[in-house]
Amino acid sequence: MGSTSAENSNKGSVGRRDLINWSAALGLISVPTMSVLSACASGGGDDSSDNDTGGKTSKSNPFGVKDGSKLDVVIFKGGYGDDYAKAWEASFKKKWGVTSVHTGTQEITGKLQPRFNAGNPPDIVDDSGAQQIPIDVLYKNGQLLDLAVVLDAPSIDDPSKKVRDTLIPGTLDAGMQGGKVVALNYIYTVWGLWYSGKLFKEKGWTEPKTWDEFLAICKDAKSQGIGGLAHQGKYPYYINVAIMDLIAKTGGLEAMKAIDNLEPNAFVGSDAAKAAVEAVYEVVEKGYLMPGTNGLTHTESQTRWNQYKAVFITSGSWLENEQLKTTPSDFDMKFLPMPLLPGSKLPFEAIRAGSGEPFIIPAKAKNLPAAKEFVRMMLSKEWSTTFAKEANSLTIVKDGVDTGVQLRPGTQSTVEASKAAGDDTFRYLYTEWYSEMGTAIENASNELMAKRIQPAEWLKRAQAAVDKQAKDPESKKNHRD
Question: Which of 120, 145, 397, 440 is in Cβ range 3.0-4.6 Å of 361 for a Cys bridge?
Answer without folding.
Answer: 145
